[in-house]
Amino acid sequence: MVVDTEIRKIGEQELSNVVNILRVSFNTVAAEFNLTKENAATNAAFIEIHDLLEMKKKDIDMLGLYLCETQIGFVAVEETKQKTYYMEKLSILPKYRHKGYGKKLMDYVFKYVKRMGGEKVSIGIINQNYILKNWYLEYGFIEKTIKKYPHLCFEVCLMEKKV
């Protein structure tokens, strides 16, 4: 059950905490799929504060999920062309998973995108992460394509959902 939560924009003073949340959250996936900084440098398990500062410069919205004033989750939302928004780096600290917090963040993103006039949300995930893929499918995302990028050691499943 989701109680006493708040979702708010991340301030610059909170970025070091966001780095920690992303590293801890994505480290579980990095361990499962043998990701390293060498074979998946852009994975959030290896994020640095300068990466978040670059996101801020690009006007990518960064949102934190707080439980009783403690940040337990994160998501980034980037406006692209043709009324599509990218949802990136959705993460919940491992000890808070499977309690509805990830869904709460997604629900918020979809309401936010709708308010901004967006028509769909797009994501990219590790194609072989079947548990995560099924979670997104159950939420209503559909698979659009599978891509192999030369700088990554895995295939990426691109998914989207209309707002």
From TrEMBL:
Superkingdom to which the source organism belongs: Bacteria
Annotated ranges, domain N-acetyltransferase: 5-163
Any one GO molecular function term: acyltransferase activity, transferring groups other than amino-acyl groups
Keywords, ordered alphabetically: Ribonucleoprotein, Ribosomal protein
InterPro entries, A to Z: Acyl_CoA_acyltransferase (IPR016181), GNAT_dom (IPR000182)
Annotated Gene3D superfamilies: 3.40.630.30
GO cellular component, one term: ribosome
Name this protein carries in UniProt: Ribosomal protein S18 acetylase RimI
Protein source organism: Dendrosporobacter quercicolus
